[in-house]
Amino acid sequence: xxxxxxxxxxxxxxxxxxxxxxxxxxxxxxxxxxxxxKIYYGPPTSHRAxxxxxxxxxxxxxxxxxxxxxxxxVDDDIETTSTNIExxxxxxxxxxxxxxxxxxxFATVEALNGRxxxxxRTWPPYTNIALxxxxxxxxxxxxxxxxxxxxxxVNVDLLATLPSHHRRGAGKLLMDHAMGKIDELHLPGTLxxxxxxxxxxxSVGFEPVGDIWVDLLRFEDGGDKGDEWAxxxxxxxxxxxxxxxxxxxxxxxxxx
Length: 256
Hints:
Structural class: alpha+beta
GO molecular function: acyltransferase activity, transferring groups other than amino-acyl groups
Number of helices: 9
Protein name: N-acetyltransferase domain-containing protein
Number of domains: 1
Strand content: 15-25%
Domain N-acetyltransferase: 155-211
Helix content: 25-40%
Strand order of the largest sheet: 1-2-3-4-5-7-6
InterPro entries: Acyl_CoA_acyltransferase, GNAT_dom, Trichothecene_AcTrans
CATH architecture: 3-Layer(aba) Sandwich
Distance between the termini: 29 Å
Order of helices and strands: EHHHHEEHHEHEHEHE
Number of strands: 7
C-alpha cells in the first residue's frame, strides 16, 4: 500500500494522541542535522527532555493556535503489535507515522498580527542558549520581514521525516499538500530551509530570497566564544570552515 497523507484535526482525540510521535520524529530529524546537534549538545540522556519540550510546543500549537495546521504521512505496511484497528484506514496508528508537516495559515492581517509561531520560547536543559537565541532571533526577524513584505501568507514551519524513512517520498507528499493549500488560498508561501531540504523545496517552486548564517565554530560545547573572538578570527559569513546556512524562501501561488 502506498504512503498516504492524513490531515490532523485538534477535535479528534486520536489525532491529539499522535503529538508524542510527532515530537519523536521531530527530535530524530533534528539530531541528524549539524546545527541542532550544536544546539542540543548534551548526552543522549538529555534528549528525552528535548523531545518533551518539542511535544509541548506542538500540543499547544495544535490545540490552541487557530493558524497552525498539521499533517502526517502514514505507512500502512509497517507492522505493529496494536490490535486497535476497528476503524480500519481511518485510524492512524503512531507506529505507522513516518513524517509530519506543520504549517501556519495567516489568511488575514488580523491573523498576522496575532501570529504565535515567532514568539518567545523556553528551552530544556543542555540547550546552547546563546546559539539558539542567535539563530531563533534571526528566524523571527525573517518571519517579521515576510509579514511586512507579503502580508497574508502561508508559512511552512516544520517538515520532518524519520531518518530511517528518508528518500521514500514522504517529504514530497507533504510539500505537495502544502502547495495545494497555498494555491487554493492564492497566498504566497514562505519557509526557512535547512541544507537537507533545499532540493525538495526548490522542486515545488520555492525560490531563495535570503540566507541565515550560523557560525558553528563560535558556539561549541554549549558555549559562546563571543563577538571579540569572532572579530579577532576575522569570521565572515560563508567564508572559511564552520559555517551553517539556513535559506529563506518564497513561493508565489499558481493558478488552479
